[in-house]
Specification:
mainly alpha, 3-stranded antiparallel β-sheet, 6 helices
């Protein structure tokens, strides 16, 4: 039995939820809505903790990709594959390779997890504000709201599809696209050990993940302002 322990300080993280709570507390003080339920309060904390994960994972991926690109500069013509021509696989340190795969997999999982938590938060805040949901499904409501704000929501579907595959159906493999000049290399995350990249459903690019991250980042303020508005208009 745990009889003595330490709690670790949880400060200085992502402040996304704070303006929403400020609007909620103002509405409570004005007698417009009831007190925040414990479950809703915990949901806000869950989101904050996971938002704190994301920049750290991205930073690790950037460092690992930079190291990978430096190593790839030493490849020889014999290592190059193309349609109909088998090259010789290029050896890299397994720790670097698997750490990069772990972090890519983790980033997709955490982004998807935050989106799901935000969907639940979205629904619970509508209930607290006694406002109707724009859509019955919480996740679809967030997408609907982004579409209404003329924000690109395509990243939302792309993220969900790839995360579901790697979480439930398969595992990621690595390759590097060197089709363009050396400075334009792109990491390829394969869904199987493929010999042709004509079918883009079988892999995604690191640049695709960057688009997902940028889409997610752009959505934060839109969703925050919408949720604040539930209580500012109360």
């Amino acid at each position: 039995m745990v009889k003595k322990w330490l709690h670790l300080t949880e400060l200085g993280g992502d402040p996304w939820v704070l303006p929403i709570w400020a609007a909620v507390h103002d509405a409570i003080k004005n007698g417009v809505v009831k007190e925040i339920p414990t479950e809703l309060s915990e949901q806000g904390l869950y989101i904050s903790v996971r938002l704190n994960f994301l920049p750290r994972i991205v930073s690790r991926i950037n460092t690992e990709v930079k190291e990978l690109y430096e190593i790839m500069k030493t490849h020889q013509p014999k290592h190059e594959f193309c349609e109909g021509i088998e090259g010789v696989s290029f050896d890299i340190d397994n720790n670097l390779k698997y750490q990069l795969l772990i972090d890519i997999d983790s980033l997709l999982f955490e982004l998807n997890s935050v989106c799901e938590l935000k969907g639940q938060f979205f629904e619970q805040l509508h209930t607290l504000a006694n406002k109707p949901m724009p859509k019955k499904n919480a996740g679809l409501s967030v997408k609907h709201m982004l579409d209404a704000a003329k924000q690109d929501s395509s990243w939302f579907v792309t993220l969900d599809n790839h995360r579901n595959f790697f979480s439930h159906k398969g595992a990621p493999y690595l390759a590097v696209d060197i089709s363009s000049c050396p400075g334009a290399a792109d990491v390829l995350i394969m869904k199987e050990n493929i010999k042709s990249f004509r079918d883009e459903s079988k892999f995604l690019r690191l640049s695709d993940i960057n688009n997902i991250v940028q889409g997610f980042a752009a959505s934060k303020l839109v969703i925050q302002e919408y949720l604040r508005g539930l209580f500012l208009q109360a």
